[in-house]
Each structure stands twice: as structure tokens, then as C-alpha cells.
Amino acid sequence: MKVLILGGTGVISRCIVEQLLAQGHHPVLFNRGTKKELFQDDVEWITGDKNDKDAFQSLMQPHRFDVVIDMISFNASDAGLTVQTFKERASQLIFCSSTAAYKRPFRTIPAQEDAEALVDDPVFPYAYHKAEMERYLHTVIAKGEIPVTIIRPSLTFGIGGANMGVLRQNVNLVHRIKSGKPLVMFGDGTVPWSFTFAPDTASAFAGAAGNERTYGQSYHATNEDLHVWEDLYLEIGKLVGREPQLVHMSSQLLHEANPGLFAHLYYEKQYSGLFDNSKIKRDIPTFRNGITLAEGLDMMLRWFEREGHPVEAEKDRLEDRLVEMYHRFGNELKALF
Description:
- Pfam families: Epimerase.
- This protein is α/β, with parallel strands linked by helices.
- Helices cover 42% and strands 15% of the residues.
- It has one domain (2-335): Rossmann fold.
- It has helices at residues 13-22, 53-60, 76-86, 125-143, 171-179, 198-208, 229-240, 251-257, 259-269, 278-283, 293-307, 313-335, and strands at residues 2-6, 26-31, 44-47, 67-70, 93-96, 148-153, 156-157, 183-186, 192-193, 196-197, 218-221, 227-228, 246-249.
């Protein structure tokens, strides 16, 4: 199959490309062409910017694809452009949404796709716009304009990603644990979560491509190993040989202090992150979700070492200040009694 990936070089999408190649398909990548070193000559590129609507549609006009996988639509308008551009030029559209689009708290635990409602409050813009995108796509499905499949990843870690940790600071976690510096954990660290890694998530997209059972369906694609948030840091500590020191802070206070940095904690991650994968396993037998937390974090740490990532000094200083404030408040609280 000839499969267009809109994006193609992100954390999940680069793994999709690798899996499509391994399955003998012909992937075509559309993006700005700044990371061509990631793949060899067996990948075709179309260079452009989807934000330039007219230029994008002009670029795509001569092409036809068996499947289009859209990893870069974040709202209904983005998805609408993809639908209008490819409804006569592709046999299937696969969209990357997010489990963040589910309204919290869940109605079911582990969450089941067809039992959950979508976010309808714009207070958390990322989640709201993904939900609006899905609502639009359901109208496309209802009208029968083109076969559409929706995949909802949860928090996914992988090579190239900088989204690990409460402050989303990746390599800083390793630096602080090795240095014996405390790290901030939201709440008491015991929110249940299933941490997922990009090669597993990518198998959902690769397995949905050309799969008629997935037409008109929505799936989440997550790990099922039961962990709590604190385990993420504790497992890194095991891998580097030093137990992390954690200080626990309210997600509400963190969000009130900096909504941009901490909205993902307050609106999403303070709630259960457990998902039932029965539906995707039924319809996509090649979906896999077996990378354990230890295996996935070992992969990430090897990448950090290989690439020589520097510490993010600004976030390191911020974490120092948060830890200092935590201890100061603790001392003041003790003084009341």
C-alpha cells in the first residue's frame, strides 16, 4: 500500500514509518523536510507546510494514496482540511486523537471507548480541540464521505520525545536522580497509570491501515501494565542505581501557578490513566502493547546517553525553587502546631 503520513518524524509517527517499511508498504512523508536524516532512500518525501492551505492542496492534487495517516491535526479545522483534500484521493483516513479528549472522571475504569464521553469544556484547550475534531469526524463518518479511523494514544514516550515527567523535562529526571536532587511529584504519586511507548502505539496505526474492520471506529491504544505515577521515577532510579527523592505538591496549586505548564496534570493526569484495549485487539490483531515500563525507560535512557542531551537549566532551576517552597511551607505548617 502507498501510505501518506502527515507528519512522519514525530515520536509515534517515526515508528509508524519503520513498521510500514517492515511490512513492505510504501510510506510517503509530508512535512517541512527538516529531519530527512531519520530515514534512508526507501522513504518518499513531499515537503511543505499544512498551515498553508492552498499550497498544501496544490501539492497533493496530483497524488492518490491507499491510506492517509494524519498525525498533525489538532482541531476540527485541521481535520476538515485533510478530509477535503483526500476524500477523492485516498481510500482511508486515519487520525491521531488522544485519550485526553475523554471527559474526566471516567465512567468506566479501565476506560472503554464506547462508554466514555468527549470533553465539552474549553478550559483545557488541547483536550477540547481534539474532542471537537472527533465530533467533526463523526459527522464525516455518518455522511459516508470517506472511511475514517480514529486512534487515541495516551501518554506515550519514545525516541525524540521531550514529554516525560511532571515538568516534561526528560533528561533532567535522570540528572536530578543521579545528583540526589529532589523531584516534584503531583499529588501523592499514587494515581494509577499505564505508561505506553511509541513502538507499541505505532502498531495501532500500522495495523489499522487498510483494515476495513476499523472503518468508522475509534480506539485507544495503550499499555495495560498497572503502575502508579510514582513508579515512573522509581523505575528510573533503579536503572541508574539511585533512589529518587520526591516531594509531593498539589496539582491544583501547580495549575493555578502556571496553567500552561501544569494543565495536563490538573485536567488529565490527576485521574486514572487505565484503558481497556479489548476493542483494538479484536479489530487489529497485530496491535501490541507489551513494552514494560522498565524496558521502555531503558530505551529512553540509552537514547539520552547516545545523543548527549543537555540538562534544561531553566526547568532545573524551577524545580529547585518548587522544592525549596515545599520545604518552606512544611516548616511554616509545623510552626502552627
